[in-house]
Specification:
Elements: E1 2-8, H1 12-27, E2 31-37, H2 41-46, E3 54-56, H3 67-91, E4 95-100, H4 102-113, E5 118-122, H5 129-134, E6 140-143, E7 156-158, H6 172-179, E8 187-191, H7 198-204, E9 212-216, H8 222-228, E10 235-238, H9 245-250, E11 253-256, H10 260-268, E12 273-275, H11 285-296, E13 299-301, H12 309-320, H13 323-332, H14 341-352
């Protein structure tokens, strides 16, 4: 049995790929998986069903803190690597696959110091800082966007971004019925990523009465959104859903941030969208993600400073009125989502454990 350490945490964009890949690895029948994550709330929520298979680590960041923190970073980093080494030995790991975040960075260094194979998967069009550094000691880097290969000097392969096996394409009418939505009115899905997005929540709250809105508000802004949406039956807010199959399947159009996993899930469900990238994302990676999708014709790109309620809802209404354009956008999304990326990645992991190099 191959023991695989999946190291990724801090955001949904790091956690969702780790979970999807673990499902594909389990389906091989010859792999067992465990996870290394951070102590952040999103990690504890998304990994909650995995119990003792998840190990939460203190992982010092490389890019924040004052002068004193930077002086202590080498000591804290060494401590994190030693803890990761101890964990990998305890779990009997045969390979480490990192999906991003600083918990994954220290796991990669620990694995390399132990002579274990190391692989990375980066889900963004602009790779994260920890993965760019970790790639220097990795055997193979796999990417969710083809353009990301240009950031890595070693072996790199475009696999696409894996999505979870429980994401099912459902007949739209059945999905709407399950959610208690009218089959007569259009449905617009607002997605702010795993943490939610206040600006997108505010845009959703400006929806016209003849449109049904499903709004993932995020937990931090959930109470406020619930109060402001009271008495509006066509506006359905929720903090977060573990299985979003019904909300994706029910929607005609989405309005979303451009985090890697939001984009991957939109592509999987072939759902046309208006993407409003988070303007403060590291290295402007959400903007680059959105530009790649828009360049393929699968989405419209709107920068946040331009995203007034009137402009957003005019764009959405134009898409709702043009079914032929929505169909073209759906077809364009196929090019962004190779068939079954998770299974492809799982095959690479198994192969790495049966021979010295990939």
């Amino acid at each position: 049995m191959i023991r695989v350490c999946l190291a990724g945490g801090g955001t949904g964009g790091h956690i969702s790929p780790a979970i999807a890949i673990s499902e594909a690895l389990q389906r091989t029948g010859i792999c067992e998986c465990f996870f290394v994550a951070t102590h952040r709330l999103v990690d504890r929520r998304m990994y909650s069903s995995y119990g003792s298979r998840v190990h939460y680590m203190e992982s010092p960041r490389l890019d924040i803190g004052g002068f004193g923190s930077k002086l202590l970073l080498p000591l804290k980093g060494l401590s994190a690597v030693l803890k990761a080494r101890k964990l990998l030995r305890l779990e009997g790991a045969d390979i480490v696959l990192a999906t991003g975040g600083y918990s994954s960075f220290y796991s990669v260094l620990a694995a390399k110091s132990m002579g274990l194979p190391v692989m990375l998967h980066d889900s963004n069009s602009v790779p994260g800082r920890s993965n760019r550094v970790a790639a220097l000691v990795s055997d193979l880097v796999m990417v969710g966007f083809s353009g990301a290969c240009s950031y890595f000097r070693g072996a790199c392969e475009f696999t696409g971004n894996p999505v979870r096996y429980n994401l099912r394409r459902i007949n739209p009418l059945k999905a709407r019925d399950a959610l208690g939505l009218s089959p007569e009115l259009p449905v617009v899905l607002f997605l702010g990523g795993s943490q939610g997005a206040r600006s997108l929540n505010d845009l959703a709250l400006q929806c016209p009465d003849d449109v049904q809105v499903l709004l993932q508000s995020g937990r931090r802004n959930g109470e406020r959104v619930q109060k402001l949406s009271a008495g509006r039956p066509n506006l359905r807010p929720f903090d977060f859903v573990d299985d979003p199959s019904e909300i994706y399947s029910a929607a005609d159009v989405a309005l979303a941030r451009a985090g890697a996993m939001s984009v991957a899930e939109l592509a999987w469900f072939r759902l046309p969208s208006v993407l409003i990238p988070y303007p403060h994302a590291a290295d402007a990676h959400q903007l680059r993600n959105a530009m790649e999708v828009a360049g393929l014709g699968g989405a419209l790109l709107l920068r946040e400073p331009e995203a007034s309620g009137e402009k957003v809802w005019n764009l959405v209404q134009d898409l709702l009125d043009d079914s032929a354009r929505r169909k073209e956008m759906s077809m364009a999304l196929i090019g962004l989502m190779p068939e079954n990326p998770a299974a492809k990645i799982a095959r690479r992991v198994v192969r790495a454990c049966w021979r010295p190099a990939v």
